[in-house]
Structures are given as structure tokens and as C-alpha cells.
Design a protein that fits this description.
Number of helices: 21
Oligomer: single chain
Shape: elongated
Distance between the termini: 120 Å
Largest sheet: none
Radius of gyration: 37 Å
């Protein structure tokens, strides 16, 4: 058996090239006499005796991808034209087409997504198709969402962790996609695993346009999350006066409190939102509603030093001597904080300086204990 002297390696080097590079003139002569050809003419530096190894091939970025998936990664549909039509006996949902839909969504390639759906019409009902919709909704790919919906992908699809497409779009502030989903008869009231809805997220982020789109689509304004909070609660917490007004106009219950008993008015007082407080007071909210700890809006406003809100609550006849579960009044709380401005307002409104809390301490006692001499002077008149 005789080896061929004309064999080349992957770098196009022949045996004669290696003989020359290795400075073996006798071997090179014998190979040349046998018909070997030197394919590379450049010689390494004199004295070099290194073995030249084949370069490792570059990693294939599309290794393991189906032809349909590779085609779907392009914004152009040209590659689809050269692909064979799927076998009628082959289920594309469980293999190529379903995966390709995800690739098209990830690549923001609406025309490719449509080509995939045309090739495999049944794939519109697959879990991968819903996953593609979720991916496009989160990424703000309106055109991909439009294509998927037009081919029957359900607008109410959910992610594996239970997040609906409409909530995903709201969380990433894609109002246009919410319009597409609701126009495709998607349920605007779907909630995620902690009970958050798109309407709550719109209120939380002060997104007026999104809030209006959802209300017009019929999103339930009284829906609560697992903490008992409504869209109105989130709007008040965000100091989103426009959202509060809009939600109240559409029937939101102003007096509904969360699981801790914190109402929209209470959370607005904590946030220091005078605009939201004005709206709620003007609509005759229960001004002395209490949290589970017995705090009223005035107690909370005094505790956080919200002087403008204290003024508004006092003007609306809030109970100036209300006591929480610890027996503290707004005056005791403000005195403990050394808040002379709030103490002065409460005294001017006629707050009782003689009331004692559960520790048997008056407002003067707590001010004296903390050496707030200016507050103590106000209390002692």
C-alpha cells in the first residue's frame, strides 16, 4: 500500500511543504521526485522547527438551529423561498415552526414571523406561539405582536410564571401593544401571580395614556391585588392626581383600604401629595378612616411632617384629637418629632394638650423627654 504524496491537510500544506519547512532537503528531494508539489512557498524563519497544526474551525453561531429558525432570524423573508414545504405528516408545532416563532419575535422580524405562521398554521395555538407573543410584548415589538394576533395567537397568553401578555406590556410601558391586545379581545383585567393588573401598573407609573386606554377597554377599576390595593391606591401613592381623578370618575371606591387598612387618602398623606388630598377631600372621603393600627389621615400627616396636608385636613374638620392604638394624638406625635410648625397648627386648631397616651405621657411630657424646648414652650403657652 502506497501513501499519496499529493495529499494536503486542511491548511493546504503538502508533505513537501512540511519537509521544506523542517529543513529536510533529502526528504524534500525524494518527495519532489515522486511528484509532490509545494503548495506554500513562504518559508518560516531559519532554524524554526515548529509543527504547524490545523486551525480549529470557527464556532457555528447557528449550530443546532433548524433551517426554519435560521430563516426566521432574518428581517427579510428571502431564505423562506428556498426552503422545502413542510411534510404534511410532520408536526411543525412540536419542532421547527414553534421554535422559529420565538426566533422571529426575538429578532423583531414580523415578516419572518408571518412566514413561519403561513408555513405551519397550527402553530398559532402552541405554547411557543404564546411565548413569542409575551416576548414581543415585553420588547415593544408592535409589528410582531400585530402579526401573531392576526394569525390567531391568543391575546390572553401567559408566561410560564403566569404573567399575562397585557401585564407584561404594561410593566414595560408599551401602550401601543396594550391597544393591540385589547383590540384583539384580550381581557384587560388579567392579573399576574401577585394580583397586579395592567391598570394598577398604569396608575403606579402615572401613565395617563395607558390608564385611559385600559379604562376604555373595560378594565375593572375596583380590582384588588393580593395586598388589597386597587388602581386608585397606586395612583394616590404615586401622587398621580390625574389618575386619581379619572379613576374616581369611573367609579373607583375612594374609601376602600388595603389589607393594612391604608386608604387612598392615608397613602396620599404619607406621600405628601396635596393635589391628591385636595381631590379626595373635595369628594367627601371618610376623612377619619383608620388603619389597622388606628391611625387616621391626620395622624399620618402629623407623623410625616406634611404641614400643608395637616392644614387641609384640619380645614376639612378632621378629628384633631384622634388617638391610635398607642394612644398617641397628632399633637403627641408632632411633639415627639420636635415638629414645632405642626404643633403650632394643631394648637391653633384647639388640640387638647391634656390627653395622655398608653404610656401616660402628654405632648409636653414627650417633648420634655427629648429636650425639644421650643415645642415645650409652645405647649406650655
Amino acid at each position: 500500500m502506497q501513501a499519496s504524496v499529493k495529499t494536503r491537510n486542511v491548511q493546504d500544506w503538502s508533505a513537501l511543504d512540511f519537509a521544506a519547512a523542517g529543513n529536510n532537503p533529502d526528504v524534500a528531494r525524494r518527495l519532489a521526485d515522486s511528484g509532490a508539489t509545494a503548495l506554500r512557498h513562504g518559508q518560516p524563519a531559519s532554524g524554526s522547527h515548529v509543527i504547524v497544526r490545523a486551525k480549529a474551525p470557527d464556532r457555528d453561531l447557528y449550530a443546532g438551529w433548524s433551517d426554519v429558525a435560521v430563516a426566521a432570524s432574518r428581517t427579510s423573508t428571502g431564505l423562506f423561498d428556498v426552503l422545502p414545504r413542510p411534510d404534511a405528516n410532520h408536526d411543525p408545532v412540536s419542532s421547527d415552526a414553534a421554535e422559529a416563532l420565538l426566533v422571529a419575535a426575538r429578532s423583531n422580524a414580523p415578516r419572518s414571523a408571518e412566514s413561519v405562521l403561513i408555513r405551519a398554521k397550527s402553530s398559532s395555538s402552541s405554547s411557543r406561539a404564546e411565548a413569542a407573543l409575551l416576548l414581543a410584548a415585553r420588547s415593544g415589538e408592535d409589528d410582531v405582536v400585530r402579526v401573531l394576533l392576526s394569525h390567531g395567537v391568543p391575546a390572553d397568553g401567559r408566561s410560564p410564571d403566569g404573567e399575562p401578555a397585557i401585564v407584561a406590556a404594561a410593566r414595560t410601558q408599551h401602550t401601543g401593544i396594550i391597544r393591540l391586545l385589547t383590540a384583539a379581545h384580550g381581557n384587560p383585567g388579567l392579573q399576574d401571580k401577585i394580583g397586579m393588573s395592567a391598570l394598577m401598573l398604569a396608575a403606579q407609573t402615572s401613565n395617563n395614556d395607558m390608564l385611559r386606554v385600559l379604562i376604555e377597554a373595560g378594565a375593572p377599576v375596583e380590582q384588588m391585588d393580593k395586598a388589597g390595593r386597587t388602581a386608585l391606591w397606586y395612583a394616590a401613592h404615586a401622587s398621580f392626581a390625574g389618575g386619581v381623578s379619572l379613576l374616581v370618575q369611573h367609579g373607583a371606591n375612594m374609601d376602600r383600604a388595603d389589607s393594612a387598612g391604608v386608604s387612598a387618602l392615608a397613602v396620599a398623606c404619607i406621600a405628601g401629595s396635596t393635589a391628591v388630598t385636595d381631590i379626595l377631600i373635595a369628594r367627601h372621603i371618610q376623612i377619619d378612616a383608620r388603619t389597622k393600627h388606628g391611625d387616621t389621615a391626620l395622624l399620618l400627616a402629623a407623623a410625616t411632617g406634611r404641614l400643608p396636608i395637616v392644614d387641609k385636613l384640619l380645614a376639612a374638620s378632621a378629628d384633631k384629637d384622634a388617638q391610635n392604638q398607642f394612644g398617641d394624638t397628632p399633637l403627641i406625635i408632632a411633639s415627639r418629632n420636635g415638629d414645632a410648625a405642626v404643633v403650632k397648627r394643631l394648637l391653633a386648631a384647639g388640640a387638647d394638650t391634656r390627653i395622655r397616651n398608653l404610656d401616660r405621657a402628654t405632648a409636653a411630657d414627650v417633648a420634655r423627654a427629648r429636650s425639644f424646648q421650643n415645642v415645650l414652650s409652645l405647649l406650655q403657652g
